[in-house]
């Protein structure tokens, strides 16, 4: 299977528990009061059953905005370092990210990508909502990059409907490199649900590509971002990552 994600799952996937509901109950009203987000299309999110929230990605804060504005609990993947810290700071980090529905992952490629998608599949198989960024990583220039086909695979494998999400202005709240959020008003747009089953089955690369392109077109319609017409690649930060990426791309040719 041609999987184009670059994360490795390390935390056992499970449904949100008490900490999630406590955190949501406290943070959601505060966030709405302080940032006054313009939210449209909440009625487009099914209140039950499998649903994928596929969003553009502009800021770290996106993974907080989506769970706090959606009308049902949402889970997503987050870096493992948010869960593995020690001492009081590590405890605070774990509690916070658990409270917003995060599941810990490590960066990687190859089998790691499939492990991450399998974690998303487990969440959807439990009739839950799962948020994903088809671009893979944050857009640093504000353009909308080409979607990676993991989102198509998830939708075609699980039968989940896809709700496109358009985030506007989140990069103004927390620009890259900033430590504390700024108070800025943002817009969150939930589009109409998409059924991608008509494109074929998950074992078809063409079906995954077509499904992903349909999802990205819907996101673009919500955000109006300039299209990059290319993938948004995160630069490898270690020698090992550079070697693994080189081997992976050589095997794909």
Helix and strand layout, with pairings?
Blueprint (H helix, E strand, L loop, with lengths): L6 E3 L8 H18 L2 E3 L10 E5 L6 H8 L4 E6 L7 H13 L2 E6 L3 H15 L3 E4 L17 H9 L2 E8 L1 H4 L13 E4 L14 H19 L15 H14 L1
Parallel strand pairs: 2-8, 3-6, 3-7, 4-5, 4-6
Antiparallel strand pairs: 1-5, 7-8
Helix pairs in contact: 1-3, 4-5, 5-7
Number of domain modules: 1
**Could you tell me the number of beta strands?**
8
CATH topology: Glycerol-3-phosphate (1)-acyltransferase
The 3D shape can be described as globular
Which CATH-level-2 architecture?
3-Layer(aba) Sandwich
Question: Overview of this structure, please?
Answer:
Keywords: Acyltransferase, Membrane, Transferase, Transmembrane, Transmembrane helix. Residues 51-170 form the Phospholipid/glycerol acyltransferase domain. One of its GO terms (molecular function) is 1-acylglycerol-3-phosphate O-acyltransferase activity. One of its GO terms (cellular component) is plasma membrane. The protein has 253 residues and is an alpha/beta fold. The protein has a single domain, classed as Glycerol-3-phosphate (1)-acyltransferase (3-Layer(aba) Sandwich). The protein has helices at residues 18-35, 62-69, 87-99, 111-125, 150-158, 170-173, 205-223, 239-252, and strands spanning 7-9, 38-40, 51-55, 74-79, 102-107, 129-132, 161-168, 187-190. Helix 3 links the parallel strand 4 and strand 5. Helix 1 (18-35) crosses helix 3 (87-99) and helix 4 (111-125) packs parallel to helix 5 (150-158).
